[in-house]
Design a protein that fits this description.
6 helices; 170 residues
Length: 170
C-alpha cells in the first residue's frame, strides 16, 4: 500500500502532492490495477491533513481514469501508468549522470535546471486545459522559471572546469 508523505514547505498544494505520489507509485509498479488506495481516514491519521483534501486528490485521479471509487468499499486503481522498473537501464544511466554531475560540483538547483531544460526540449508539458503543447506552460504566471541559454552555458562551463577526466567524452 502507498504511504503519502506531505511536505508542507514545498509550495505544492497538498492534494497535488497526493496525486503526484499516487502517479509515481503507478509508474514504478508499487500500485497496480485492482489495488486499494488508503481510505481518506487512513491518510488523515498518517498525515494530519483535512479529509476533504484527500477526497479532492482521489477525485482528480478518478477524473484522470486512474482510480474508481466504489461506494462503501473504497477507492481502487483502475489502470497503471507506463512502468519504469527501478533496475531499468535508463535509470542506471541517469544514476551515473547524477554521479558525474555531483563530481563536477553541480548543486541540486543546477542539476534540476539542466534536467528540466532537457525535459522541456524532448517532452511536451501538459496544459491545464488538456492540450499538449511544448510551450503551454510559458504563458502562465505559475510556470517554472527556465534557465536561459547563457545560464546553461555557464553551468556547462563550470562542469568542464571540474571535469575529473578532461577530454573524455563519457
Amino acid at each position: 500500500m502507498v504511504e503519502y508523505r506531505i511536505d508542507r514547505h514545498s509550495g505544492v498544494a497538498t492534494y497535488v502532492q497526493i496525486v503526484q505520489q499516487t502517479k509515481q507509485a503507478l509508474r514504478l509498479g508499487v500500485l497496480q490495477a485492482g489495488d486499494k488506495l488508503p481510505t481518506a481516514r487512513e491518510v488523515v491519521e498518517a498525515t494530519a491533513i483535512n479529509p476533504n483534501t484527500v477526497l479532492k486528490a482521489y477525485r482528480e485521479l478518478e477524473r484522470d481514469g486512474l482510480v474508481e471509487a466504489r461506494r462503501g468499499v473504497g477507492t481502487f486503481v483502475r489502470r497503471g501508468l507506463n512502468t519504469t522498473p527501478a533496475d531499468s537501464p535508463l535509470r542506471t544511466e541517469l544514476d551515473a549522470w547524477a554521479v558525474r554531475a555531483r563530481e563536477a560540483a553541480l548543486d541540486r538547483d543546477d542539476v534540476a535546471a539542466l534536467f528540466t531544460a532537457v525535459l522541456d526540449e524532448h517532452f511536451a508539458a501538459p496544459d491545464p486545459n488538456g492540450r499538449t503543447d511544448l510551450h503551454s506552460r510559458t504563458d502562465r504566471a505559475d510556470a517554472p522559471v527556465r534557465p536561459s541559454r547563457t545560464d546553461l552555458h555557464d553551468m556547462h562551463d563550470r562542469h568542464d572546469r571540474h571535469d575529473p577526466n578532461p577530454g573524455d567524452p563519457s
